[in-house]
Structure formats: structure tokens, C-alpha cells
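Below is how a single chain appears once it has passed through the pipeline. First comes the sequence as given, then the structure the pipeline wrote out for it. We keep one example in the README because the format questions we get most often are answered faster by looking than by reading.
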Amino acid sequence: MTRLAQWVAEVTPEGSLPVFLAFNAPFDWMFVNEYFYRYLGHNPFGHKALDIKAYYMGLHGVSWEETGMRSVSSRYLDNQNLTHHALRDALDQAEIFRRMLVAAKTKYKGETQ
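Resulting structure:
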């Protein structure tokens, strides 16, 4: 956990705060939070988590039932399933979210907020 906290600090741009991102973030965050507190006494992410499924739901206007990996993967990961190997899944989830951000920029380009 020390190495992970150090890595988070190294890759977080100066003046920014890290945000925990995951496919089903509420589930994963509770474990990560527990281990950070158990072994380090703090969580470098704080209470900031972004759920890929919820972002997908908002971006595409679909129901929660349509946010499973099958739906998301068909659009953003060439129908590839998560392997349940921690590093591979983290990389795949990062790629899904990167592609979603590109889609969001394209979808909302030129709109004022």
C-alpha cells in the first residue's frame, strides 16, 4: 500500500487531487479504502471515486441494467472481457475511460455549459 500511495503521489499533477476510478467503483473503493487505512492510516484518494458504469450511463442515456461489461466492452473495448487479473483489468478500465472521455468530447463539442 505504501508503494501504491507513493505511485499515486508521483503521477498526480501538482495542484491536483487524485480520484479513484473503477468499473463498479463503489465495490472496489471500499476494499482499497480499507487497506489504505489499515496499513497507512489514510487513503490518498480521500472520498473521491468516479464510477465508469455511472459515467457510461450518463454519457449514453441508458438504464443501469445496460451498464454491464458486455455493453461497455462492445462500445469501448472491442468486446473484450475483464480478466480478473488486477493489473490487466486496471489497464483495460483506464482504456475504456480514456475512450469514453474522447466520446464525450466529441459528443459535446461546441456546447456551452
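Strands lie at 20-22, 49-51.

See the next section for the split statistics.
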